[in-house]
Structure formats: C-alpha cells, structure tokens
Amino acid sequence: MLFKRLSEYWQEIDKTGSRLEMTAILARLFNELIAGEIDLAVNLSLGRLRPKYEGVEFNLAEKMMVRVIASAYNRPVDEVEKLFKKTGDLGVTVTQCYKKTVSQSHPSLRGASSVTEIYNRLLAIAQDSGSGSQERKVQQMADLIKNMDGLSARYLVRIPINNLRLGFSEMTVLDGLSWMAKGDKSLRPDLERAFNVCADIGLIAKEYKNKGIQKIRRIKPQIGVPIRPQKSERLPSADKIVEKLGGIHPLKQGFAVEGKWDGLRVQIHIDKPLVRIFSRNLDNMTAMFPEITAAAAQLPAESVILDGEAVAYDNKTGKLLSFQETAQRKRIHGVAGKAKELPIKVFIYDLLLLNGKTLIAEPFIKRRQELEKIMSVPAGGLELAKQEIVTDTKKLRELREKYIHLGLEGVMCKKLNEPYRAGARNFNWVKFKKVTQGELADTIDAVVMGYYLGKGKRTGFGIGAFLVGVPNEKGAIGSIAKIGTGLSDEQWRELKVRCSKFEVRSKPEEYLVDKNLDCDVWVKPELVTEIMADEITKSPIHAFGLALRFPRLVRFRDDKKPDEATSKAELEKLFKLQSV
To answer: Cβ neighbours of residue 16 under 8 Å, at least 6 residues apart?
Structure first.
C-alpha cells in the first residue's frame, strides 16, 4: 500500500465522530493491507513505530518539527512559527506551507512511497543517536516531507510528537480486525484475549491477517512481551467482600488476603540470563532497577513471569516509603546513585509463567503454590507477599487495619479458584482500602485538562485552579471537577511546572467541557492525578452528568497514562456504591 493511500484512510477517520464508522473504515483498511505491512500500518495509525514496551521515541519536540517544515519547504523558521501559533496544529501548518511553496517538478512522484518504505525511514530516524543526531533527524525528516504530497505530510508530521489525533485506541483496532472478517464484533473477545496476554497489537494484527482466528486463539504469553495486568474492583464494605468472595473452594475455604502496597506495579520477565521489568502501562523499566534485575537472576528457574509491587524503603530502618519517594526511582540518569539512596523491594504476589509453561489459566491457589516454591530461597530485593486465608469480616477488618498501620493502603482480596484475567477488571480481585468517614470508597484517577489563572496569592503561581476529567468508552475525556483548594503552595508550583510541558493553544478535540468551565490554559491529556472527594453528585454542567463534591489532590500518578485513568463506567459504579 502507498503511504498516500494510508493517509486517505486516516483522513476518512478524521472526518467522522462515529465509533462505528471508524471501525468500518479500519476494517476496509485492514482488508486492503497485506500481511507483511498490516503491523506497520497499525502502529503508525496509533501514532508510533513499535509496541509501547520497546520504547522507540523520536525525541523531536514541536519546535524541532517547525524547523523540519521550514527546511522541507525552504521557508523562514519564524514564518512557520507564526503560522503554527495561528493554527495550533503542525498538520494544518504543513498543509498550508505545501500549498504555498511546493515545487511542481515531478508531481507524479509525490506520494509514490509505500507504507513500508516510509515506515523504515521513520524507524531509522527515530533510532539515530549520538553526537549531532538531532540535526540529522531534522534534515532527514525534512527530506522525507518535501517529497510527499500534502495530505501525507499532514499526518506524518504529527507522528514524531505523538499527536496523530485520530481518536481511537487499540480496542478500536481489535474491533476493526473483527469487522474485517465478520462484519461485526463477534471475534473481538478472542482478539482482546490474545492482546491481553501478548500486548503487541501489531503482532496480533499480523498473525490474524496471515493465519486467521485459530492462530489468535492459540496465542500465549511470551517472555519479553508484557501481559496486560489484571485489575481489581471495589466493594463498599467488608461484609460485601466476604459475601462476594467467600464461597467454599474444594481445597480451601474463604479467599486470600494480601497487603495492598502503595508503590509501582511491576511485571518481571526472566529468561536467563536476560531480565526485563515492565510497568503497569507496559513501559520498559529494566534500566531503572539494577538491584531487582540482579535479584531476579538468582531465582531457581530458567524462565519466569512475575507480578508484583516495587516499593522504596529506608536503608537504616527498613520502613517502607511513600509512593512519591518510590516514584523517584523512575529515571534515566543517575540510576546508581538513586538506587543507593532509595533501595527497592519488590513484593511478588503472582506467577504467570514458569519454565516455559503458562500459568494464567490455572486457579490462583495453584499459581500461589508454585510461586511459594520458587520464592522459598531468598533472592535479594524480591520478597514473597504474605498471604492469609480469610472467611469472616472480623478477620478481614483486622488485616486491613494491620496493613494500614504498617504504612500500606489496605488489603487486596483474591478468589482462590480463578485464573489470571489479563487486562480485565473484575471481582476476582477486590481492594479494601482505608476510608475516612464522609469520603468515597476509593480515589479517582483523573486526567488534567487545563487550568485557570490565579488570583491574589496564587497570581505568583500562575495557576489558581485546574480542571480534571475521565475518559469514556470512545476515548473522549469529560470534565468531572474543577479543583481550587486542598493543595499546598509547593503542590501548586509543581502542578504549574507539569502543566507547562503540555500546554496547547486550543481545547483538544477529545475534551467534553461545558463553555462555562472553559480553562484559561488547556493542556494535552498527559497528566494523571489521584483525587479524593467526599462524594459523587449529579451535575447539570459536567460532561457525564456526574461531579466530585469537595475534590482534593492526593498525588500525581506518574505511573499511569490517561487511558489508565478511572473510566466513565467506573465513575458510575462508584456513584452507585454510595447508596449500597
């Protein structure tokens, strides 16, 4: 397929706001692509080159891309900057430059490059490193664009800055793959299961296109490819948890209770001698935790996938530290020094693969038994999560209080006879956290949408309040709260610095905000915050008809991406839990 043809499909998607139409367009695109290029086109359509966990980044900011456009069309940089300030969109900017200045020589050659050719050139640009690489990247991108038609250039310039703006996610891709063959979503469950256990959407698309649904049904976890983590649900009380989880299992009675740590979710892949560590949002964090890499290599198994929580601790007292302190270990530079200052323990609570055999379909009780065997020998900073079997509310409450006293968030309750449901949020796991009287049963992870300029004392901060929202099933983000209290002076300053990195000139298209709540400054959907509130109330002004009452910032969630924020559906569940 020509890249120009792919861009025409993207333009079709751009013009529709209907999820069903998007799915139908993707199905047509996938039908037209051949097996050898569908993985490339899928990743490009998601605004990237490789799966998230491979971490391939362009490292070209908007200012650099302005220089790319200026060089491609031989225009002064300040002229392109002025145009970009006016349009607020590099894609529109490059289109206007193309119309004004493009050479008419060899018009038939413009847009003649294939998807594979463009992809390979983009990958080479992204992987260029070392002295002078930024200048080389600018020139190589300019060379690529100046030989393109205007439509192709419009979309291509958005890819290096992670802003393709087509408005769909991997889940829509899975729908499109099902529609490609069946004309409906009937194969979506099989495709989603495969993606959940092998989180490489390009690979899933390629295998499906090449070998069909039977191959997809046989896909298993692979060492080095992250499994999408299982998530927990919420219930309002110990009574409800025991009622939901406390049935009698043939081997044991009750359900398992473990601590709920306030750290970084990690998935450790071991294929000796190689060790890889992935975050909850599938980023590769291996280089950030050298002590864990060394400890993992000591385990008495050749190949393993472990699920656990990384928490920093005080070297002198052994006391577990806060999430904010643990999050300081997420860094590229100064890793060795920070590892000495903030050592890490990983509490391991699940085993997903052992010596080449996948265990995700096995009941939790069996996975735990196998985990206890390989964790019986101390392995540096890896520690087996303590577990107790509980059958009554009194014991459950006691354990929650015990773990809270130790500095944890509360407890996690798990059914004994259930498999590991990769990527799912269900009642196989239920969290039971500390709740103060008059507060919600859980916090909300919300996306920062923009902010309002400060008045009085906050004039000096440059920010006086901020707007947060949550995503719906279509990827749109709707407002749920305007927050102007509860932050310390330091938190206001930090929020302003964080927002400054993602400021945009106009409200992002995916934002659903009443005009009475329009922000003074909008930001791209990049920042996730943890918010506590007294309750969720009905609202005539907020996008989904619900709002947070007395919201306040708990912390910044650097370990989460916007698509991992609390969803509209989860917000509605929390609203209903209030009346239980």
So the answer is: 22, 25
Segment (H or E) for 416: none
Instruction: Name the domain boundary from 433, 467, 486.
Output: 433
Shared domain for 394 and 521, answered yes or no, is no
Print the domain residue range for 569: 444-577
| Residue type at 462 in one-letter notation | G
Same domain for 311 and 381, yes or no, is: yes
Q: What is the mean pLDDT of residues 474-497?
A: 91
Kindly report the backbone phi and psi dihedral angles of residue 302, in degrees, each rounded to the nearest multiple of 5, phi listed first.
-85, -40
Angle (deg, nearest 10), helices 201-211 and 170-182: 10
- The bridge status of strand 387-390 relative to strand 255-260 is antiparallel
Q: Say whether both 398 and 493 belong to one domain.
A: no
In a domain, 197, yes or no: no
| Locus of tokens 């050719």 | 117
Tokens of 155: 């979309």
Q: Per residue in 327-347, pLDDT tens?
A: 888 888 888 888 889 999 999
Pair 254, 301 in one domain: yes
- pLDDT of 141 higher than 60: yes
CATH number for the domain harbouring residue 281: 3.30.470.30
DSSP symbols for 100-118 = HH---SSGGGTT-SBHHHH
How far, in Å, CA of 575 to CA of 114, rounded? 50
End-to-end Cα, the chain, rounded Å: 55
Same domain, yes or no: 323 and 262 = yes
How do strand 264-271 and strand 511-512 relate by DSSP bridges? unpaired
> Catalytic residue positions?
260
Distance CA 216, CA 234 (A): 32
pTM > 0.70: yes or no: yes
Whether cis (ω within 30° of 0) applies to the bond prior to 273 is yes
- Please, are residues 456 and 518 in contact by the beta-carbon 8 Å criterion? no
